[in-house]
Write a structure and sequence with these properties.
By secondary structure, the chain is of the alpha+beta class. The chain has four helices and two strands. The protein folds into two domains: 59 residues, no CATH class; 42 residues, no CATH class. The longest helix is centred in the last third of the chain and has 20 residues. The protein starts with 6 loop residues before the first strand and ends with a helix.
C-alpha cells in the first residue's frame, strides 16, 4: 500500500528514545481515502516529504522501488529480546515487582554468559 498526497508539515515532537513524531495536515479526504489511510496504521515504510514542489514521475517510481525488511521483521533484535523478557515477567515475575528490575537482572545474566564465551 502507498499514500502519496499533498501535505503540510504541522509539527513534530521529540521522544525520549530519540525518535521523532511527525504531524502532517492534508487537504480534505474522501471516506475511501480515509479508509485507505486507516488500513496503513502501524505499518512500516518510508516517508519522503519535499516542501513546495510536486513529486516527479521518476521520484514516485524510485520510491515505489524501495525495498525494506521492516515488513519481515518490524522489530529490532533488542526490541524482540525486551518483548520476550516482558512476557516472561508477566508469566512469572520471579519476585520482581517492577519489570525494569527483572529486565536488568536477566540482561545482565545474558551479558555475563556472552562475556564468558570471549575468554
Amino acid at each position: 500500500m502507498k499514500l502519496i498526497t499533498a501535505a503540510q508539515l504541522d509539527g513534530y515532537s521529540p521522544r525520549k528514545d530519540k525518535c521523532v513524531t511527525l504531524r502532517f495536515i492534508t487537504q480534505e479526504k474522501s471516506p475511501e481515502e480515509i479508509m485507505h489511510i486507516h488500513q496503513m496504521l502501524d505499518g512500516f515504510g518510508y516517508l519522503y516529504f519535499r516542501a513546495e514542489e510536486q513529486l516527479s514521475k521518476e521520484e514516485i517510481d524510485e520510491l515505489d522501488a524501495l525495498e525494506t525488511d521492516l515488513y519481515d521483521q518490524p522489530k529490532t533484535q533488542s526490541q524482540r529480546i525486551r518483548g520476550v523478557l516482558f512476557k516472561m515477567w508477566e508469566q512469572d515475575n520471579k519476585g520482581y515487582s517492577q519489570f525494569k528490575d527483572f529486565y536488568k537482572h536477566h540482561t545482565e545474566k545474558i551479558i555475563e554468559w556472552l562475556k564468558k564465551k570471549l575468554d
